[in-house]
Amino acid sequence: MDPVRNPFAPGAGQRPPELAGRDRELHAFDVVLERVARGRPERSLVLTGLRGVGKTVLLGELRSMAVRAGWGAGKIEARPDADLRRPLSAALHRAVRDLAVRHRAPDRVEETLGVLKAFALKATPPDAKLKDRWQPGIDAPVLTGRADSGDIEIDLVELFGVVAELAADVGVGVALLIDEMQDLQLDDVSALCAACHELSQSGAPLVVVGAGLPHLPAVLSASKSYSERLFRYVRIGQLDRSDADFALTAPAKREDAELTPAALDALYEVSGGYPYFVQAYGKAAWDAAVQSPIDVDDVRVAAPDAGAELAVGFFGSRYERATPAEREYLQGMAELAEGRDEAVQTAKLAAHLGKRASSLSPARDSLLRKGLVFSAERGWIAFTVPHFGRFLLGRD
């Protein structure tokens, strides 16, 4: 098979050739776009799921939908070591530029940019040296007095209101998309919830779409109790059998190639239906096949190569970030769950490792911060990466 024509594309945040199994989420967001554009209230959206299920890809697709609808749209990736003000300023600057193309009043656009610039400049501490002062790159004079108090919660509420007013002038909305939302700092989570609460009460045409790991709802709820009613939560999981098959057969058909039913059986077994693994094993099977149709023997030949590549790039890169104590913790989790993608009880894990639960807390907390494990329920812990336990048990 010609490797140049290989249609499969495993990659972090890279859109697969066929976005299979996400029609429900795409249709729901299309309804959000229509409702907000008509002045109807709509909750912001939060996508949750393990790594490798396509949250980032779906977030990018929702952004494209917003842009095609004429909305202003900006996307950021949260980082645990950075506050929200600077990346948020850049994302909303992009959204305002999208709106400026359609707005007929340049003065209103400049006024909005002036407020945004005042908000952005508060990212620099007042006592910072001149060489350390950050300039947001917004070509407008600063408009002081709004969204520049220095309190992120007060400022974000005001800024969202100003940007939403500009969108309302055009008859569209603004979509702010936040990836890795669980990594936001606590003050920023609280501010974002407060701003979304204000938006929901006023019906302003601005929607926040967040994506993060399965424990993200717990992070939001711990910040503001009303967040449970503030967002619409959508769990993104692995593809069912028909969607996984379609993700493989449709791109192959466009390249005049086919897969046998036995090959599809084998590919679903090794991938578990996780979109990233579907692409990785599909790509390897294509490269291993001599001719169409790709059969089960091609999958068997390709599987070790695909697994070895995943062991280095997908699993290994994460494992290398862990300290020896953290690796012992991860290994114990894998052994207790017998390699399955299941949560384990922390008390049983301590007993399995022959240690006191309190002595394992530092490793657990560090792994939580690194995004390698999550705890959606008190006393339980699970891997954020599917098949990670299987990888650990399969290491030499």
Automatic annotation (TrEMBL):
Swiss-Prot/TrEMBL keywords: Heme, Iron, Metal-binding
Recorded superkingdom: Bacteria
Keyword Chloroplast: no
Gene Ontology MF: a single term: heme binding
Renumbered residue ranges of the record's region Disordered: 1-21
Domain Cytochrome c stretches: 168-275
Keyword check for Iron: yes
Pfam families (alphabetical): AAA_16
Protein name (record): Cytochrome c domain-containing protein
